[in-house]
Design goal:
The complex is a heterodimer of chains A (367) and B (286). Chain A is of the alpha+beta class and 367 residues long. Chain A is 26% helix and 34% strand. In chain A, a hairpin with a 2-residue loop joins strand 9 and strand 10 (210-215). Classes of the chains: A alpha+beta (367), B mainly alpha (286).
């Protein structure tokens, strides 16, 4: 089912939950609403579900405005963070509930529930009480209940947030696989950018009730249109510096106090064309390296830094360093054995450097 | 571990000591019902010696008045459980979930009303009941001097507590469960009946129990709004017994009192486990 949101807004007594959200979702597409808590992503989802009435704008399903259509008539299935199962019913009772309301005949209910339950790997748990299930099993029941009525649109409200990390990984893959196999359009609300990046065809990044960007995951990562998107997408988050762009001997440099780095010509020219005295420069932690045999110091792109914090992430170490008084995060290979207090040379890969207007926080490279 | 043992010893000692007066009182009551006279806990016969046990105090069970009083008590209590139950579960749900004009005023209003003692309202209620009694057909069943009228007044007095109690229980249920049910295809009424009510069962049980006891022991309202023995309930009957006979046969009064308690004791025995659940957790499950 094709979903179109046009200037969709929601406000309660002057508090804005969602502000003129406009986006469209193609049939069979998997879209993630990504943003920090309170950004309006769940509000928008609940408007699509029909639980909240929009204060303004329209929601269209396959070209028809559904603003006034009751949730039960929208042909949707929804999975909640809290699972929202009915604790007084068995697993069978929960999954069959939508069908029982539709007065589907008993043998068909049994068949369809069994089929969905088998698909979810809970086929042998149908007689269990909800409280006897683990969190992962409960979420499968919840997913089964959403799927059993064969909805046109699946809505997910942070469905994996209450699960442990391992389970989250498996469920992530399973949800994606199911959605692809069944070809159901899906909206997936999450604050976890890894989930959004790995699962979604397109990501809508939201902040403060406003849609910040709506793009395919790689574009969000490589061509962030706002400073918010650049900082939110990617983990650990991008480093930002206030810099001036200076042209010297036909070469562009980003300068600010102790920072002085040579810039690639194409990006620097675009940034300089914005005509701002100061710009915000963004460099990802994974684009900064410790100088060693594999990564030799490069003239104009090397700075000396002091290590303040070392956070072992397993395969890599996340370093918190300062270059004089400027703080930044650097992601390095574990084998390099960095220690707190060491002074190290860092080499910057500037090929994917980003620049933002300090006033509007819009990218000066991408529009 | 030693301190744990002495601690337990002291708590048992304390509990034992504190229930002694209650135990003595009930023992006295039971002994009194089967004696002609008592001195302390001892039954006394006419000569002043120990003895004189009799079942004469229980002769009232062969009179129809006590059974009619019992039936009236039961009618009032059951009508209250049903009336308060329906009004509180539906009203509490609406107040917990819907936004409507006057919601806040209603909530504070009921709370303030609950603070009024029933005594203050007796005269006003009298006029209301007299007016209700003039309604054709149903008037005689819900007006002054009818069991229905008494039940109606008692329901009204119990409602503020009931509505607030049920609103509190509904407030504790996540909105998501309700949203899920609505997306699954349930309308408002079905959500309330099939999804929400089962979640607040402990609350309904507690409310039913409180209401039943309040109805069973109701004295002031039935005493004020009924005349004669036909519509008297148990407490009113007991009062009539005390004021009508001279000298008062206190041993018979004790027997009637004990008789009145029997249904409640049975009720408690059967619901003890449920009650403990209510006080322990409020709600079970996730």
């Amino acid at each position: 089912m094709r979903v179109e949101l046009e200037n969709l807004s929601k406000a309660w007594d002057g508090v804005v939950g969602a502000d003129r959200i406009t986006l469209d979702i193609a049939d069979g597409e998997f879209v993630a609403f990504l943003g920090p808590s309170g950004c309006g992503k769940t509000t928008t989802l609940l408007m699509v579900a029909g639980i909240y009435k929009p204060s303004g704008g329209t929601i269209k399903f396959d070209g028809h405005v559904v603003n006034e259509v009751a949730p039960k008539d929208r042909g949707i299935g929804m999975v909640f963070q809290s699972y929202a199962l009915y604790p007084h019913m068995t697993v069978f009772g929960n999954i069959s509930y939508p069908l029982r309301i539709q007065k589907v005949n008993k043998t068909e209910i049994k068949e369809r529930v069994q089929k969905v339950a088998d698909m979810m790997g809970i086929g042998d748990l149908l007689d269990r009480k909800i409280v006897q299930l683990s969190g992962g099993q409960q979420q499968r029941v919840s997913l089964g209940r959403a799927l059993v009525k064969e909805p046109q649109l699946l809505l997910f409200d942070e469905p994996l947030s209450n699960l442990d990390a391992r389970l989250r990984l498996t469920m992530r893959g399973e949800i994606k696989r199911l959605q692809e196999e069944m070809g159901i359009t899906a909206i997936y609300v999450t604050h976890d950018q890894v989930e959004a990046m790995t699962m979604a065809d397109r990501i809508a990044v939201m902040s403060g009730g406003v849609l910040q960007a709506y793009d395919v995951p790689t574009d969000l990562y490589e061509h962030p249109k706002t400073q918010f998107v650049a900082g939110f997408v990617g983990n650990p988050p991008m480093n930002f510096f206030d810099v001036e762009i200076v042209a010297m001997d036909g070469e562009f440099r980003a300068k600010s106090g102790s920072i002085d780095l040579a810039l690639p010509r194409d990006r620097a020219e675009k940034a300089a064309a914005a005509g701002k005295d100061k710009l915000i420069m963004g460099v990802r932690p994974e684009d900064i390296y410790l100088v060693d045999d594999a990564e030799p110091a490069a003239p104009g792109r090397t700075l000396t830094a002091a290590i303040e914090v070392v956070e072992p992430l397993g395969r890599e170490d996340l370093l918190g360093v300062t270059v004089n008084d400027v703080e930044m995060r650097v992601l390095v290979d574990k084998t390099k054995g960095a220690a707190v207090g060491d002074n190290v040379d860092l080499v910057f890969d500037m090929s994917s450097v980003q620049f933002f207007d300090p006033e509007t926080e819009q990218s000066v490279l991408w529009t | 571990m030693g301190s744990g043992k002495t601690g337990r010893f002291f708590s048992y000692a304390f509990l034992t000591l504190s229930i002694v007066p209650i135990l003595v009182g009930y023992t006295w009551l039971v002994i009194a019902t089967v004696s002609t006279r008592t001195r302390g806990l001892l039954p006394i016969n006419a000569e002043g010696g120990i003895g004189g046990l009799t079942l004469g105090n229980w002769s009232f069970v062969f009179e129809s008045a006590i059974w009619s009083a019992m039936l009236n008590s039961l009618l009032i209590a059951v009508a209250m459980v049903i009336g308060v139950g329906i009004a509180s579960t539906s009203g509490g749900y609406a107040l917990s979930r819907f936004k409507f004009p006057g919601r806040k005023g209603f909530l504070t209003g009921t709370l303030v009303l609950h603070a009024f003692k029933a005594e203050m309202l007796l005269i006003a209620i009298f006029f209301v009941l007299r007016w209700l009694g003039e309604i054709p057909l149903i008037g005689p069943y819900i007006g002054f001097n009818s069991v229905g009228g008494v039940a109606l007044v008692m329901v009204a007095l119990e409602l503020p507590l009931g509505i607030w109690l049920m609103k509190g229980f509904f407030d504790n249920i996540s909105w998501d469960m309700e949203r899920a049910a609505m997306i699954d295809g349930a309308g408002r009424f079905r959500v309330w009946w099939q999804i929400m009510l089962p979640q607040v069962r402990p609350g309904i049980a507690a409310l039913a129990l409180f209401t039943f006891i309040a109805g069973w022991n109701a004295y002031l309202v039935p005493f004020t709004f009924t005349i004669g023995t036909k519509v008297a309930n148990m407490p009113v009957y007991l009062n009539q017994l005390i004021s009508d006979t001279a000298p008062v046969n206190w041993n018979q009064v004790a027997a009637v009192g004990l008789f009145q308690m029997i249904p409640l004791i049975i009720f408690f025995i059967f619901t003890q486990e449920l009650l403990l659940n209510i006080y322990a957790g409020g709600s079970k499950g996730t």
